[in-house]
Amino acid sequence: MNKMVTRTGQVLLLATMLVLGSGFGQVKEKEVADFRLKSVDGRSISLKDYPEAKGFIIVFTCNHCPFAKLYPPRLNELNAKYKALGVPVIAISSTDTVVYEGDSYDKMVAKARDEHFNFPYLMDDMQTVARNFGAQKTPHAYVIWKENGRYVVKYNGAIDDNGAEPEKVTRRYVANAVDELLDGRRVNIPETKSIGCQINMRK
């Protein structure tokens, strides 16, 4: 009898461990909502406007931040490469324009024109999209993937590992994440620390 009780207890313990352990080491991926924001070309843009897209490179950036100013050429390169593969770049400014007048819509239009942006530059004037994503800095990059009608964050953080010296970049976090997803693989580095100016959220 005691042996039967002991064996039954061992079986129950093993089953419990298997259930508890089934989620061990799995990171819950964040889902983000679609949005519709005004672009510098006057259009209203939503993720649903890209029905053929596999995913997106979303970059929260702005005009005034010294760190953000380093990346427009690299964003152009990312969009030139990955848009054709179904993963376009979309840049969003969520800066408080009361505090930073240089991030006004008119100034955004001028910057996109002067620096020949080949990607949409959207104004998140109510900061709702930045809050939804949890964006903290400029630039703060996200790679999101379409899964069963949902938009799931697969990577967030820095664009690469050297803002000041692009020729010395050794880790292209965003590009690597997109390459892995296009190959059907799990993203090896799903999160890094974004380096840049803080996005000040209005209260």
Characterization of the model:
GO terms for molecular function: antioxidant activity; oxidoreductase activity. This is Thioredoxin family protein. Residues 26-179 form the Thioredoxin domain. Pfam families: AhpC-TSA (PF00578). The protein has helices at 2-21, 72-82, 105-114, 128-133, 173-182, and strands at residues 31-32, 36-39, 44-46, 55-61, 89-93, 121-123, 137-138, 140-147, 150-157, 197-198. Helices cover 28% and strands 22% of the residues. The chain contains five helices and ten strands. It has one domain: Glutaredoxin (3-Layer(aba) Sandwich). It has 203 residues and is α+β, with helices and mostly antiparallel strands. Strands 1-9-8-4-5-6-2-3 form an eight-stranded mixed β-sheet. It has a two-stranded antiparallel ribbon with strand order 7-10. β4 (55-61), α2 and β5 (89-93) form a beta-alpha-beta unit.
